[in-house]
């Protein structure tokens, strides 16, 4: 579950116990949150995979060959940075 879902569950538990309840979650609401989280994960992975595929197709050289065979550490760092940047953008868009 994402960070936003965790905050919602914590808030829901606090409100339930503050209202004199036993702190038990409402199953349909919990199921809705889980399904929503799974959908957002699928969309995020799809966008991430599409962006990475686009990067590999637009590069004028083989990224796999440069990193694996030629031991191009700088390219590995750049690709890793792009992956982290994409992950941050997708997480911000979803959350």
Please characterize this protein's 3D structure.
With 95 residues, this protein is mainly α. It has one domain. It has four helices and no strands. The mean pLDDT is 80.
Terminal CA distance: 11 Å
Rg calculated over all Cα atoms? 20 Å
- Main beta sheet strand tally, sense and closure: none
Integer count of domains: 1
Indicate the structural class.
Answer: mainly alpha
One letter per element, helices H and strands E, the order comes to HHHH
- Silhouette: elongated
Poorly predicted runs are none
Average the pLDDT over all residues and give the rounded result: 80
Query: How many DSSP-defined strands?
Result: 0
- Helix % is over 70%
Task: Quickly count the helices.
Answer: 4
Give a brief description.
The protein has 95 residues and is an all-alpha fold.
């Amino acid at each position: 579950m994402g960070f936003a879902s965790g905050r919602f569950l914590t808030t829901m538990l606090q409100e339930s116990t503050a209202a004199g309840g036993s702190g038990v979650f409402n199953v349909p609401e919990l199921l809705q949150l889980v399904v929503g989280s799974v959908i957002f994960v699928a969309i995020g992975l799809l966008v991430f995979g599409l962006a990475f595929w686009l990067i590999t197709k637009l590069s004028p050289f083989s990224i796999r060959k440069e990193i694996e065979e030629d031991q191009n550490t700088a390219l590995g760092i750049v690709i890793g940075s792009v992956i982290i940047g994409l992950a941050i953008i997708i997480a911000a868009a979803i959350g």
